[in-house]
Amino acid sequence: MWNKVQETVAFINDKTNQFLPEYGVVLGSGLGGFANDISVAYEISYAEILNFPVSTVEGHKGALLFGTIGTKKVVAMQGRFHYYEGYDMKQVTFPIRVMKYIGVEKLIVSNASGGVNPNFKVGDVMMLTDHINMMPEHPLRGANDNRFGPRFLNMSEPYAKKLQETAINIAHELQIDLKKGVYLALQGPTFETLAEYKMVKAMGADCVGMSTVPEVIVARHMNMECFGISVITDMGDEENIEEVNHEEVLLAAKSAEPKVRELIKQLILNS
Ligand code: HPA
Q1: What pLDDT score was predicted for residue 111?
Q2: Is pLDDT above 60 for 74?
Q3: 210, 231, 247: which to mutate for ligand 1, most atoms within 8 A of CB?
Q4: How many CA atoms lie within 13 A of 185 on its CB side?
């Protein structure tokens, strides 16, 4: 794994003339348009990148975008690898390993999720303060390579407090009602049954989704600072569960996109 990562890093650095971005952004549902906020200097499609997971989905669009936001250098993942697509956790998190060694110190991860906190509504934006990992496979399972990080990783601060504080201040200035809460990750691809949404709530989470947690675990393994943002695209309760489907999720994510984009842009400019 170490050699594979370093090979890919060398491949990318060659293509980008050692661009060395400080920020990494995973563009999930609700942040796709963020690509337009980046002055792109280099774009490399996943299919081209040495050792990157091969997409099995036809017409799958995926690329790394290298560019700037103001004076800050960023790399963005346009399209991510989900566990439910059939990739194993090492594949899902491989791009995060690569990001670390092309210079990324701060990782911003976005997603769409189903809300179970009754104070939430569709279209709300929630900052992740913590997470619960209920995925069936752990990305750090297996032999540990100490060059990446420790065998037994401390997870007391998965999402950097400092970035959270900065985001709260920015949201205040932008008059964005930024919710805060715990994200619980399930493998999907089914949406939850009503009983499962109730379980998610009983477990202490505020929302549920099918991504993000593996990436954050691997980023923390390599001591990257993380920031997570989620768009509440549906509510997992008695009144609303019938409306949960992919189209509604995409629609709600799109409607919240301007807010999320501006917040993330300002977070990068101010941290
Ligand atoms: N459950 C799981 N993943 C999701 C949901 C949900 O309700 N909404 C968006 N992604």
Answers
A1: 95
A2: yes
A3: 210
A4: 25
CA of 119 to the centre of ligand 1 (A): 17
Tell me the CA–centroid distance for residue 251 and ligand 1, in Å: 13
For residue 236, give the CATH number of its domain. Answer: 3.40.50.1580
Residues 6+ apart with CB under 8 A from 180: 126, 127, 129, 164
144 is in which domain, residue-wise?
2-270
Residue nearest atom 7 in ligand 1 by C-alpha distance: 114
pLDDT digits (tens, 9 = 90+) for 169-227: 999 999 999 999 999 999 999 999 999 999 999 999 999 999 999 999 999 999 999 99
The total of structural domains in the chain comes to 1
